[in-house]
Design a protein that fits this description.
This protein has 169 residues and is an alpha+beta fold. The protein has 7 helices and 4 strands. The longest helix is centred in the middle third of the chain and has 21 residues, at 90-110. Helix 2 (25-36) packs antiparallel against helix 5. The chain binds flavin mononucleotide (FMN). Flavin mononucleotide binds at residues 13-14, 16, 67, 70, 116-120, 154, 156.
Length: 169
Amino acid sequence: MTSSVLNAIYKRRSIREFTEKEISSEQLYEIVKAGIWAPSGLNNQPWRFVIIKDLDVKEQVAQQTHYGHIVRDANALIAVYLSKDEMYDTVKDIQSAGACIQNILLAAEALELGAVWLGQILKNKSDVNKILELSDNFDLMAIVALGYPSHRNQKSKRKEVSELLLKET
Ligand SMILES: Cc1cc2nc3c(=O)[nH]c(=O)nc-3n(C[C@H](O)[C@H](O)[C@H](O)COP(=O)(O)O)c2cc1C
């Protein structure tokens, strides 16, 4: 297989343990930029981002999820939001956010960083907004935890295409 895109898709794993090595601002901006280059309905780009590196803010965010240990261990977080003012169709805007988050994960992979999509925290999204001093006009879609991976021993599996293909006409 020669496609670097396909390689990244297959090679990417959720990384939940990180070293203490710093991620630079340039790397974080590149990752957000990759997110922004995801497709969105009508190209409305409804996403907004918060980059979190501050230890005190990170700790407060960690307390909002069962996966707080991952948040604490991560070197940086990217909170991905939808701006309700920019939305035009709930389903399509949420799909766009998903595409954006996947681009973020793949960009982290391309930069040899590790990342994991954290969704469980959404049950406390209003509290996360309070911590980040954002109004409820911003709807949290996910927090991506990022860092240099401690190891790359993660395993994952998927069902076979044949199990999932409903029909081929
Ligand atoms: C919508 C969504 C929410 C997720 N929430 C969490 C989470 O809260 N905590 C976590 O550790 N992983 C979370 N994950 C990561 C999944 O557990 C992971 O992608 C899945 O097990 C497949 O593993 P892989 O990413 O290594 O292929 C989430 C993934 C998605 C797409």
